[in-house]
User: Fold these one by one.
Assistant:
Number 1:
Amino acid sequence: MTSNNYAEAAQLFRHALSPEDAARLPFYGQLVKAMAEDTTCLDILSSTPRRQRKPVLLLAALHYAARRDTNSMSQLFARGLRPGEDLGLVIDEVLREVARSPELITQHIHRSTQTNEPGRSAVIGAVLQELATRGSNSIALIDVGCSAGLNLYPDFIPVNDDASPLSLICNDLIDIDRTKAFPRIELRFGIDTNPLDVSREDDRQWLAACVWPEDQTRLLRLEQLVDTLPSWPEPHIFVGDATEQLSAVLLEIPDGVTPVIVNSWVLAYFSPAEQLAYYELVTELCRSAGAAWISIESSFDVAFHQLNNPAHPSPKKGASSILVCEPGGVPSAWGWCHPHGHWLSFTPSA
Ligand SMILES: C[S@@+](CC[C@H](N)C(=O)[O-])C[C@H]1O[C@@H](n2cnc3c(N)ncnc32)[C@H](O)[C@@H]1O
């Protein structure tokens, strides 16, 4: 392994969590910092195929092991989450265990990071409500990189509603009227190279492993949602690459229904050339096929997300940017959000 590969992998570990998440989640926050100095972890990450070279994949593999049985990783994770533990000692032991048994991680490298974060529906929902006021009242929602499809129900999952166990918590940094009507979602489509099926135990386990263990609220909500999902309208799932499948999905949508294409935390898994091809296809569909587009991605990973509204810079480090393209329009910056939708700072273009 060259020192360049190590330097790149170390940098990825150091930026794996936003500063606010690293402070909120000390076990994972300190673990990724230690992984950035650990030769076994640097070796594993640098030899992971580039598309999946994400520290969160390694974390998900460890969490998967910790959730499976009573084993040493389960015990170490339990200690990592216990208040008052010396995290430095626990993390040293986690890394010793990885050095002894790297297969704990490497056996999962064929998988991909499939975190399906419903918190992003709090952002998608706010954009849909705004699009409805602008005439997109009857829509087909198309979630590109849908994982298990949890973000296909922004009209079913409440936001900031203490009475509902499913409720998402989104701290709106700018006043947002969440009582506005949603558009009618006539059809729901998901596209994914490897869609997860919540009726399969291993898929459920992998979904849960992709959630950070200190985020108990997220884990509990995931379990509730996964149990509720089968009672909601069934989506149409297309298996395959986004750019190849999108035009086929659009053929399924009747006249009078606006296709709304959504991608959230997907394009980081595309090469720069694939990102550009996707951008050209989707903006063409907005221009000529009456589609709308909502893109929620990191501008660090996706070059075209560097489109900013100079009057509205990101309020926090590590934020995701929101681009929206209305039917017949061009993409514009509509604000910023936490990568998991914990907060939203929303400035729809006029
Ligand atoms: C990090 S997950 C995000 C899931 C979901 N969009 C969310 O926000 O919760 C990325 C998903 O994109 C899928 N994916 C990656 N590359 C893809 C491609 N070229 N076409 C379609 N799906 C893809 C992966 O299989 C995975 O389920």
Note: Residues 112-117, 120, 145, 147, 151, 191-194, 241-242, 264-266, 269-270 surround S-adenosylmethionine (CB under 6 Å).
Number 2:
Amino acid sequence: MTGNTVFDYLLIGVFVAAVVSALSLIFIDAPYGRHKKGGWGPTINTRLGWVLMESPASLVFLYFFVVGDNNTSIVSLILLVMWQSHYFHRSFIYPFQIKVKPGDRVPVMVIFMGGSYCAINGFLNGSYISTYAEHLDDQWLTDPRFALGIILFCFGYYLNKKSDQILRDLRKDSTEGYKIPYGLGYKYVSMPNYLGEILTWTGFALAAWSLAGVSFVIFTMANLVPRAITNHKWYLETFSDYPKDRKAIFPKIL
Ligand SMILES: NC(=O)c1ccc[n+]([C@@H]2O[C@H](COP(=O)([O-])OP(=O)(O)OC[C@H]3O[C@@H](n4cnc5c(N)ncnc54)[C@H](OP(=O)(O)O)[C@@H]3O)[C@@H](O)[C@H]2O)c1
């Protein structure tokens, strides 16, 4: 806790929202991708939707990082690079890499809810690092938590990006339809891209040693674990030859 009322209440709000999201996703499938259905109000072009939903995490983080006092220490700059290496890619490159049908659309409600969270998340993590954290000085460079966090972040980043690329390669000849993915983390789980995302942000939270980072890990898990379970079930029901020894998201566990 920082003593700043807005920051502290938003942080508590994210933990509460994570619980609400996880409970809701047990009963409702988020209506995008293979679980898309009508009845969710107005829709928006899918690529534009991704840009609008994810870019607040990149831009709001950058703004609050820059206006804070600790924006030139090596540690804070490394954390900035880690954050932006994921979010610049996710906001401005990934939306133009995915294979979508021409004219594909997603509900505005999904984009609004995701974008609102991304803005809050960018504020919490950007301002924590450059305004509220007192430990992110040059001494932190030699702390094992910083080194371990960076290693975990890099592993998660690679797993996430490579797994997403394997999915894109399944649509080399067509912009729609689903096939069974193989290779890398798909040997063990149906959604290694989600596992990579969770490891990425666990590494970031460890490197920054912050509750804001932990709130992001919990929120990510609250969204991705239920969806991974749903997608795993969908794979098993859709493909009779789906590998039976694969788990949903955590190898050998779930
Ligand atoms: N931090 C968070 O809370 C959070 C939340 C959501 C997503 N994400 C990240 O955002 C990225 C995308 O998430 P997502 O939920 O869209 O992932 P996804 O369901 O795995 O889909 C990723 C892309 O691959 C396509 N695809 C999926 N399975 C396929 C298959 N078997 N054959 C061919 N194409 C396939 C999808 O097409 P369709 O769209 O047509 O299904 C989509 O374009 C992931 O890296 C994820 O970790 C993060």
Note: The chain has a mean pLDDT of 95.
